[in-house]
Design goal:
By secondary structure, the chain is an alpha+beta fold. The chain has 2 domains: 123 residues, Roll (PH-domain like), CATH 2.30.29; 92 residues, 2-Layer Sandwich (TATA-Binding Protein). β1 and β2 form a beta hairpin. Helix content is 27%, strand content 37%.
């Protein structure tokens, strides 16, 4: 009987949010990747997408993501004994006391925002998950330590691609992409760039890996070859490549 009541309650919640024009949640916080900044925000789940806006008057939009650019949605309950978000949030995940609720929105490659992380209030997280399920038509997956939402190297392999951007732009964005993944840039030339990750990286994913990118100019195109020396077994070639590509596309 208890299970039937719970199922009925969830069904009513889904029905309610699907009929409403917008679902607005006023107790969320936007967390910048790496945990450097936490901002109180309003989270709006509409029929066309997800919007994060400031709580100032007048409010301004920080992030606006239509559903067609959202690749994955993830939710997790976190405490001191279970911290799957350490790779993304760094120290803020370790310093968070008690239980906390987190939402991750992964955008498709080429979208400026990349991954969006929000801390949800304990009184609102059920409504957020229900609203996203009802309005987006997407599955909100439970985040576990081996999720690609947390460990971007899962399934990664070395990259060999020709992309429609000139070599100087590719080199510049490769440097930024490497630094995004805590890979310290070392040797750099007009056709070559290398980086090395610390043996104890801040994101707690692998460690000691070296990444090398070799470039070949083909006019307004560039042949890109990105390889990883294994280190502790993580391959960062694909995450760095996708981050580079996302930044190149967003700059045009």
């Amino acid at each position: 009987m208890r299970i039937m009541r719970r199922t009925a309650a969830v069904a009513l919640l889904l029905l309610g949010v699907s009929c409403a024009q917008d679902a607005v949640f006023t107790k969320s916080a936007l967390v910048r990747i790496g945990g450097a900044e936490i901002t109180r925000v309003d989270l709006i789940v509409s029929d066309i997408g997800v919007t994060v806006r400031t709580k100032t008057k007048p409010a301004s939009v920080i992030i606006d993501l239509p559903y067609d650019v959202i690749k994955n949605l993830g939710y997790t309950l976190m405490d001191q004994r279970r911290t799957p978000l350490v790779p993304l949030l760094g120290a803020v995940a370790l310093l968070t006391k008690g239980q906390s609720h987190w939402l991750m929105i992964e955008s498709s490659p080429g979208v400026v925002n990349g991954t969006t992380v929000l801390r949800l209030d304990k009184t609102e997280y059920r409504g957020v998950v229900a609203a996203l399920t009802a309005k987006s038509g997407k599955h909100v997956e439970m985040i576990v330590p081996n999720s690609t939402l947390v460990d971007p190297t899962i399934g990664s392999q070395d990259e060999y691609e020709v992309i429609p951007f000139p070599i100087d732009q590719v080199l510049a964005m490769l440097k930024v992409a490497m630094e995004q993944y805590s890979c310290k840039v070392g040797k750099t030339g007009v056709k070559h760039i290398e980086c090395t990750r610390s043996s104890r990286p801040a994101d707690a994913v692998g460690g000691g890996e070296g990444v090398t990118a070799a470039l070949e100019s083909r006019g307004q195109e560039t042949r890109v070859q990105i390889t990883t020396r294994k280190g502790f077994g993580k391959n960062w070639s694909q995450p760095i490549y996708l981050e580079m590509l996302r930044r190149l596309k967003s700059a045009h």
